[in-house]
Amino acid sequence: MTRLDELLYEMTRYDDKDVKRIQHFLKVHEFARLIGLEENLDPYTQEVLEAAAIVHDIGIHKAEEKYGRNTGKYQEMEGPGEARTMLTALSWPLEVIDRVCYLVGHHHTYDNIDGMDYQILVEADFLVNLFEDGSTPDTQKSVFERIFRTEGGKRLFRLMFESGEE
User: Among positive and negative, which fits the CA dihedral 21, 22, 28, 32?
Assistant: First the structure.
């Protein structure tokens, strides 16, 4: 079993039978994985991306507990500490932990995206959220124009939300 597999199990345990959240991070992880592969990320960046996709919403439960809500801002505040604790307990390398925590702490911030791992994480999260939130075609179009930059992300978006050929 790889350390990404171990992280998937640990995050599932962490979400404590919150099936909606578990299914959310699994979908974001798979879309991020696919986009990263299509964009030919180097193995290190691919692993960072996938780890970040798995734990990207780890701050939700703590945000709900502390603030009574789980908006993106609160997720970004509470997530990095929770991610650091989990990744450290699983003996991940410090440089990977630092980047994953950065991504978790910024995944709802859409300006100044620095790095393909960050861009792809945002795109993957949007692919899932647009569906889960029941977005309208106008919202989908607006998000596509504002957010999507990778060929893999654009391809998945078109397959999911646009009619006709790819």
Answer: positive
